[in-house]
Each structure stands twice: as C-alpha cells, then as structure tokens.
Amino acid sequence: MQRSQTLVAVGTLAVAGLLAAGARDISSEAGYAGIGPNFVPWVVAAALAVCGLWLLWEALTGGFRNMEDDGPAPEVEGDGKPCWIGFAAVSAGILLNAALITTLGFILSCALCFVLATRGYRASQGHPDLRPATLVRDLLVGLVIAAPVYWLFTKLLAINLPGLTASGWI
C-alpha cells in the first residue's frame, strides 16, 4: 500500500510541476488589482507542491495516517452498470451547446443543454420521462436559468456572450 501512496505523492508533485511550468509562460504584468494573471496558477502549483511533499512524507514514514482500511465496496444505487443513454444525452447537451452557442445564442443553447442534461440524468436514475409536457417544462426551466445569467454577464459585467439578436437581450 505504501508504494501506491508514494505514487500518489509523486503524481501530485508532477502535476504541481506541470502547473508551475505552465504558469511560467503566463504574463506576470500587474493588472487591475496589482496581481498578474499568473498569480493564481502559481498559488495552485505551490499548494499542490506542499500537498505532494506532505503526502510523500506520510507515505515514506508509515503510510497515510487517516486513511481508512479497505473494507467492502460502498453500495451503489441501481444495478451498478453504466447508463450509456444518459451519458450520451448529457454529452450531446454539452457538445451541442458548444457547437450552437454562436448560432442560437447563449440563452437557447444553454436551455437546450439543460433539457438534454435533465433527460440524461433521469435516464441514469431509471426514470426516463419522454412526455412532451416534461420536455416543455425542462425547456422553460432552462430558459429561466440561462436568461438571468446572460443578462448578468452582458448587462452588469459587460462581458460579451453570443446573443440571438443584436439587441443584447436574447
């Protein structure tokens, strides 16, 4: 077990090194708050390095102290098999959102993503509901969630998101 724990520690240190190497390529020019855009990646890399060193110290001095013994596997809801239909629906929602966001606009593409994601999650729970009323309800809920987010970003934060019309409200 200590060998696998050592590998986890070394992997954490490797990820920290990769983040530090990536942060080195990011500009350090101070921005709005006097902090450059490379600040957060450096903080994350440093925190991961500290965690990796701590994990390595624990692995080399007797193993992870607070780790529970391997017991029986936790119970899994359902039959434990992957739900490929649900996975496909959620994946399609995410991919269609990315593909259609410039064509349909942020609000409609996010509402479509919400509809497909809810279909996928319901299918994974064994409760696929294919009634048109449910589809319309999910679409309306998706619109109610996406529209305020769009307005928050475009009107209050002045961040450009693709809209359906040039008015900036849809």
UniProtKB/TrEMBL annotation:
Membrane-spanning intervals of the chain: 39-57, 94-119, 139-158
Record keywords, A-Z: Membrane, Transmembrane, Transmembrane helix
Coiled coil: none
Domain of life: Bacteria
InterPro entries linked to this entry: DUF1468 (IPR009936)
Location of the DUF1468 domain: 8-162
Name of the protein in question: Tripartite tricarboxylate transporter TctB family protein
Species assigned in the record: Aquincola tertiaricarbonis
